[in-house]
Each structure stands twice: as C-alpha cells, then as structure tokens.
C-alpha cells in the first residue's frame, strides 16, 4: 500500500468513525457535544406545550444527526472509490497478448487528484474548527477531532506537494492519481503528461531499403491469430493509432489466422477504407508455411506469395516477403533465387527478409541476394541473438534486425500475474515459459522491470521496448526495430512512445539480466525444431 492508498483508507476510516456513532447513538453524541441544551432552564415551566417542543426538538436533532452520519459514510465511500483505492474499471480481458496495458496511459480514476485535494482541505478545516471550538467551550473531547483531522490534513498536503509522480500510480490497482477531471478541467495533468511524453519520445527515424520508418514497428499477429479476434472497427482504430504514433513498419503473416480471416484479409479491408495510408506503411509479410511445416521449395514459395498478393487484393503492395521458418529440405540459396528473380526483379515485391534464422543461414542468403532485414525474437527474456552470432553477423552485413515479441509475448507488460491470466485457447498456453512450473520464476524479471519503470515514470512495456531499441548500433549491433503488437488504439499509442534509457539505467538492467536465467525454452513441441534455422 503506497502513501496515497494509506491516506485514502485513513480518510474513509476517519469519516466512518464519525458517521457510525452519529447514526447509531445520536442522542448520546448530541449530549456529549452540547450538554447545555439538554438541561432544562430553572425558570422554565414544565407545561405540556414545552414538553411537546422538547420532543420535536429531540426528534429533529436525531434526524439531522443520522443524516449527517449517512452523509459522512457516503463521502467516505466516494473518497475510497474516486481515488483508486478500489478501481472503478478493469482492463479488457484478453488484452495481455497485445503486450501493452499501462497504468500511466490507461487511468482508471480521473478524479483522484481532485478528490485528494478536497479531502486535504476538509481535514485542515475540520482541525481548525475543532481547535477553535475547544478553546471556546473548554471541552477536551474536541481535541480528538483536532488531532485526527490535523494528522490527515498534513499527510494529504505532503502527498500533493512532495510525493513523486511515479508514486501517484497505484501499484495495486493501476490507478493514475496524477490526473483530475471535471470541474478541474484536467489542465495541469494534461500539461504534465505532454511534458513527460516530450521528454521520453525520441524523434528518430531509420531507413529500410530507402524508405523511412519509425524506430518502433507494429506487429499484426494479435489482431487475427487469437480465439476471438477483435472487430474490424477496433482493429482499424489500433492500426490508425499505430501509424499516427510513427509506427509505420507493419509485420503480418499469411497464416496469422484462418484462410478467410488473417493479416492479409484484414489489411485489404483496412486499406480499402483508408487508401491514403497505403503509401505511408512499409509492409512485411511472412509466408512459406504449410500444414506440415516450413515449405520454402520453389513451388511452395510461389504458392504462398501469390496467395498473399491475391488476398491483399491490390489495396497495398507487399514491400517485403519472408519465409517464416527455414525449410531444411530446400537449400536457402534456391529459395532466395526464386524470390529475387521472379518477384523482386519483376516488381511484385521490393525486398526479401529472413525469419528465425541462424548466423550461417544469413551469410548464405546474403551471398545470393540483398537481405533487407532479419526477423528474430528479442526481448529482456530472449537475448539469444547476442550469443549465437546473429546480431554480430547482421551488424557486419549491415542488415537491420526486426525484433518480434519485444515485450516477451506480453509477459513484460506486467498484466500477467499467473498462468490463469492467459485466456483459454491462446497459443501462449503452449509455450514452456508460461507453464505453471516456470511462470513464478519468470515473474521475477517482470517485477524488476516494473520497479525500474516506476522510477523512470514509464510503463513496463515502454521500458522493455526502449531497452530493445537502444541496443541499436551499440557495439557491433545493427539497427534494431522492435515490433510490438497492440489490439487497441490506446495500447498502440503507448507503444509509440520511445523511452530513452541512461547508461546507468542500462547498466542496472544488465546487472539484473546477468543474475536471471529464464525457465523454459522460447518454443516447445514441434515448433522448437525450427528455431534458428
């Protein structure tokens, strides 16, 4: 529980402590606070009329006492809810695969800062009133109110003046306590958020075979390859937001979904609706994967790429094509020659990429044709390319690396707290690192990332993406472009904020990684045989 939660619950408890006696024992409370009104005047005549007035007065006092108690109890509940101690909303289920849900960009309590301010003023005013009343009446019971309200007023003031912005995000509920709403116009919070985003965003662009692209790309797999794909409306909003955030390198797959609903069919519908976006996007598509596994034979490549071109229906040119895995039955040189002679030179595609390959395969392919990119897994969980020679080879040959699953398949977003958080039917249920015996151990890295992100003032996902990108051109590394997925507009926008890490922060992350070894391979079952082909 952080200091804001403590202040919230203490405020609610203090109000409830006053409310319950007022509602349950109104006569006793009134007599304690103003005993003189309970004592009849010595000169009064105890007539039936005066008794009637006394009864009416007592009934009114009890009524207003109970009303006051009920009001205090209601205010206590509102304070607890509106400040995020109890969240008003929860995340949309199944969004973990997008790899991005953040407290900072998806606030659940827009009135928290305003309510904290009002509660602080209330406590301060109550403390002053009780203190003045004590001096006027001489009743020591009022000093209890002075002490309780005074302490809470001081804590509230400290929260507003001295607590850091990162501490205003509740670790337990994800509530963003830096924002406010009507009637406070949220102007200060909006200004602070703009300054923070400006500070964290790196306005850097890179080029891919002569075309300028943003430092972060966009993975389309989660939009179609899931048990219950999002609607076109939601997908289009996410795609629009990604493009607006500068994520114009898009990566999809022929087999990301069903033959009727996959990356290509979704893209065809999107560009039919937004034809003006076609030239803004650099599109990379994976194919060459049949029912029995990789098929990079000349016939298999032609069948796959021709189908991709057919599915996108002329709405957008496929800029880059890559076989998703290496077909060990077909020499890589044969595959490259077919793609070069029949598709690149004829203008059907602009370039060839490789996916999930080893260093030796990269060299063999590059000896036949120009390789515009190499797509491999890279995240804080998966750093194999720096040990198996892939990164060094790409750096030597000046081939950019496209980093898939840069948020560890959503693990590093901080959304997943147990294997049960993964929706049934999702492919992640099959991965070794998400199995119950490995999950808790791997969660250790996530917790460390969350701590660093909180200090940095960004989300865990943004930290993970910033780390991947910042490895670009470091040492012998080539340009590295992470391609996180996002199935909502908010998540896509969040991914577009590139966080720049200091050398000290990078060293801290390296120290954590040096002591951490993930449990479980990147893939299990038959898929493991196609790693690093």
Automatic annotation (TrEMBL):
GO terms for cellular component: cytoplasm. InterPro entries: Aldo-Keto_reductase, NAD(P)_OxRdtase_dom_sf, NADP_OxRdtase_dom. It comes from the Eukaryota. It holds the Pfam family Aldo_ket_red. Keywords: Membrane, Oxidoreductase, Transmembrane, Transmembrane helix. Coiled coil: none annotated. Signal peptide: none annotated. The chain crosses the membrane at residues 12-33, 67-90, 110-132, 144-163. Gene3D superfamilies: NADP-dependent oxidoreductase domain. Residues 215-513 form the NADP-dependent oxidoreductase domain. GO terms for molecular function: oxidoreductase activity. This is NADP-dependent oxidoreductase domain-containing protein. The lineage of its organism: Eukaryota, Fungi, Dikarya, Ascomycota, Pezizomycotina.
């Amino acid at each position: 529980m952080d200091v804001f939660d403590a202040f919230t619950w203490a405020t609610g408890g203090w109000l409830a402590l006053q409310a319950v006696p007022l509602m349950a024992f109104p006569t006793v409370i009134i007599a304690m606070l103003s005993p003189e009104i309970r004592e009849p005047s010595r000169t009064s005549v105890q007539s039936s009329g005066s008794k009637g007035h006394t009864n009416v007065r007592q009934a009114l006092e009890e009524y207003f006492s109970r009303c006051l108690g009920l009001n205090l109890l209601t205010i206590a509940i509102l304070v607890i809810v509106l400040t995020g101690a109890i969240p008003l909303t929860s995340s949309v289920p199944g969004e973990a695969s997008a790899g991005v849900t953040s407290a900072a960009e998806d606030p659940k309590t827009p009135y928290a800062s305003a309510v904290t301010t009002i509660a602080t003023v209330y406590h301060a005013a109550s403390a002053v009133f009780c203190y003045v009343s004590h001096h006027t009446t001489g009743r020591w019971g009022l000093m209890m109110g002075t002490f309780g309200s005074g302490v809470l007023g001081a804590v509230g003031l400290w929260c507003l003046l001295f607590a850091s912005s990162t501490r205003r995000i509740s670790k337990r509920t994800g509530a963003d306590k830096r924002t406010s709403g009507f009637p406070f116009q949220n102007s200060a919070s909006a200004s602070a958020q703009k300054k923070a985003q400006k500070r964290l965003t790196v306005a850097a662009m890179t080029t891919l075979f002569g075309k300028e692209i943003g430092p972060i790309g966009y993975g389309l797999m989660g939009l179609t390859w899931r048990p219950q794909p999002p609607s076109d409306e939601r997908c289009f909003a996410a795609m629009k937001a990604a493009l607006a955030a500068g994520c114009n390198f898009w990566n999809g797959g022929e087999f990301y979904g069903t033959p009727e609903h996959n990356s290509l069919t979704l893209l065809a519908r999107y560009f039919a609706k937004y034809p003006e976006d076609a030239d803004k996007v650099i599109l990379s598509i994976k194919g060459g994967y049949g029912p029995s596994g990789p098929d990079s034979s000349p016939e298999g490549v032609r069948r796959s790429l021709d189908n991709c071109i057919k599915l996108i229906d002329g709405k957008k040119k496929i800029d880059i094509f890559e076989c998703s895995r290496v077909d060990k039955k077909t020499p890589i040189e044969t595959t490259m020659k077919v793609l070069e002679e029949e598709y690149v030179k004829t203008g059907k595609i602009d370039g060839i990429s490789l996916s999930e390959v080893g260093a030796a395969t990269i060299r063999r392919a590059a000896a036949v044709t120009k390789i515009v990119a190499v797509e491999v897994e890279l995240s804080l969980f998966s750093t194999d390319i720096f040990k198996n020679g892939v990164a060094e080879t790409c750096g030597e040959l000046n081939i950019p690396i496209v980093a898939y699953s840069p948020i560890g398949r959503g693990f590093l977003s901080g959304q997943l707290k147990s294997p049960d958080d993964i929706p049934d039917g999702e492919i992640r249920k099959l991965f070794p690192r998400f199995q119950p015996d490995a999950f808790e151990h791997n969660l250790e890295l996530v917790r460390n990332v969350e701590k660093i992100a909180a200090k940095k003032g960004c989300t865990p996902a943004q930290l993970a993406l910033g780390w991947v990108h910042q490895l670009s051109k470091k040492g012998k590394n080539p340009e590295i472009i992470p391609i996180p997925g996002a199935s909502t507009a908010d998540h896509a926008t969040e991914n577009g904020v590139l966080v720049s890490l200091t050398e000290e922060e990078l060293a801290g992350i390296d120290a954590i990684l040096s002591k951490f070894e993930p449990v479980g391979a990147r893939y299990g079952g038959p898929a493991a045989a196609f790693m690093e082909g």
